Amino acid sequence: MRLAHLSLTHFRNYRRLELDFAGRLLLQGQNAQGKTNLLEAIFFLATSRSVHAQAEREIVDWQAEAEPIPYCRVAGAAQIAGRQLEIEIILTPRADGVNFVKQIKINGVARRAMDLVGQLRAVLFLPEDIRLIDGGPGERRRYLDIALCQIDPAYCRALSSFQQVVTQRNSLLKTLREQEVNAGSTAVAAQLAFWDERMVQHGAVVIARRHNFIVELERHAVVRHTELSGGREALSLLYLPSFNPGQLPDAEFELVRDGLQSPATSQPLTAAGVADTYMRKLAARRAREIVAGNTLYGPHRDDLRLLANGRDLRLFGSRGQQRSAALALKLAELQAMTQATGDAPLLLLDDVMSELDEQRRSLLLGALAGVEQTIVTTTDLDDFTPLFRTQAQIFSVAAGAVATLDNGTPAP
Ligand SMILES: Nc1ncnc2c1ncn2[C@@H]1O[C@H](COP(=O)(O)OP(=O)(O)O)[C@@H](O)[C@H]1O
Ligand SMILES: [Mg+2]
Fold first, then answer.
1. Do the Cβ atoms of 225 and 325 come closer than 8 Å?
2. What confidence tens digit (pLDDT) does each residue in 339-374 have?
3. Average pLDDT score over residue span 171-187
4. Mutate which of 26, 31, 37, 100 for ligand 1 pocket (most atoms within 8 A of beta carbon)
């Protein structure tokens, strides 16, 4: 797939931008000029999410406030398997003046965010991706969710339904806690049954899919990581759900979860199988959840552990090891996404070359061969080989404006 046109209005430091491009794109500019913002805009078109989890209002140009109707618009035209796809996202302020309404159109027709995700797919590399390794579980869940939602609409629907149900279920659990009910009573079981059933139905789809996806990611990541470490390290990925979904005996599951043992093999999970163990877990832990006034089991409590030679990289990895693992994970995502959909996603690389040594650079550039379109940013064109530069359209980015550069010299 290929993006051919990008149009921005009041998106971060872009007042107005109309940009046409063909294939590979290289964006050069000093710091704080708008390179990351441009990639963020493309990622926003693909996922309708901002790169960082914070409020949407952050992406609206500060100066938009001075407009009669402050709004932010991101639009693009893409070629996907010979089809033309037009996407438009508009953010307008709500009456409260703080939050924004998001309107999405695909080929001119209003759609939900869920219908957008997966149409124009993108994998984004950022210098701060190392947080996938050294950050909290929330970062890793977010990573899995964004990747999986782009591949699998059923996953995206299940995730969204699950999140809605958990909110409802939590407020019921809080009410039950305040009422100091007897958790063992049939009346309480009956009250929870409705929400339990829905939560398990959607949650089991999410858990099974994450598990199976991680097995697949691992297959690709191991190969990349072996190359990055010169064969010295074996990477493994371990899915850590908040309860034993039934793949291992309980005692073994606990040893694996606590990092005391590695699982023998990873068999695929089915949603039906997970639903079974999930339901039993809830029944056995009802009292505990009521005391907590909160849902304690489910995909919102999952984690993903990355190990090198059996050691947890979050706890024991050096910066270099963590960086390699993050890169291996991203390249694995690119491959898994290409395989699952039969079409390579857009590859967005934000200022990543400067962070990488020679070997990691060439591995990354090697991965570009299978990608139809790559959009890269850099402060220094010399980070790229002359060959790479002749194969790219080069633009300069300065103060929210983009201009053509011809092999590194501004066009007349
Ligand atoms: N909502 C916003 N409105 C206007 N300017 C913004 C907004 N958010 C960020 N900026 C500006 O964008 C610039 C950073 O752009 P960025 O794309 O991160 O730069 P870089 O070229 O270094 O990647 C900063 O000057 C910042 O002040
Ligand atoms: Mg930047």
1. yes
2. 999 999 999 999 988 888 888 888 888 888 889 999
3. 94
4. 37
**CB-based pocket (< 6 A), ligand 1:** 12-13, 29, 31-37, 58-62, 397
Alpha carbon of 28 to ligand 1 centroid (Å)? 15
Closest C-alpha to ligand 1, atom 13: 32
Which domain does 304 fall in, by range? 128-150+201-341
In-domain check, residue 23: yes
Tell me what the pLDDT averaged over the chain comes to. 92
Q: What are the residues facing 60 on neighbouring strands? A: 11
Task: Quote the pLDDT of residue 53.
Answer: 57
Q: What is the pLDDT of residue 176?
A: 96
Q: Is residue 180 part of a domain?
A: no
Q: Which ligand is nearest to the CA of 39?
A: 1
Q: For residues 306 and 218, is the Cβ–Cβ distance under 8 A?
A: no
Cα 409 to averaged position of ligand 2 atoms, centre (Å): 21
**Atom number of ligand 1 nearest to Cα 30:** 21
Looking at the fold, whether 12 and 106 belong to one and the same domain comes out as yes
Residue 377 CA: nearest ligand 1 atom is 23
> For residue 407, how far is the Cα from the chain centroid?
33
| CATH code for the domain in which residue 331 is found | 1.20.1050.90
**Domain's final residue, options 281, 314, 341:** 341
- The yes-or-no verdict on residue 247 having pLDDT over 90 is no
Average pLDDT value for residue range 11-33: 96
Q: What is the pLDDT of residues 64-106, one digit of tens each?
A: 888 887 889 999 999 998 899 999 999 998 888 788 899 999 9
Of 280, 315, 341, the domain-final residue: 341
Q: Are 404 and 325 contained in the same domain?
A: no
Ligand number with the minimum distance to the CA of 41: 1
Query: How would you class 213 by CB atoms within 10 Å of its CB: exposed for 0-12, middle for 13-18, buried for 19 or more?
Result: buried
Give pTM, 2 decimals.
Answer: 0.93
Q: Please give the structure tokens belonging to residue 94.
A: 């709500």
CA of 124 to the centre of ligand 2 (A): 13
Alpha helix (H) residue ranges in 152-233: 153-178, 186-228
Pick the ligand that lies closest to the CA of residue 38: 1
Check whether 412 has a pLDDT greater than 50: no
Specify the residue with its C-alpha closest to ligand 1, atom 14.
32
Quick one: CA dihedral 199, 212, 81, 120, positive or negative?
positive
Number of structural domains found in the chain: 2
Amino acid residing at 203: G
> How many whole angstroms separate alpha carbon 215 and alpha carbon 291?
35
pLDDT in tens, 277-333: 999 999 999 999 999 999 999 999 999 999 999 999 999 999 999 999 999 999 999
User: Within a domain: residue 285?
Assistant: yes
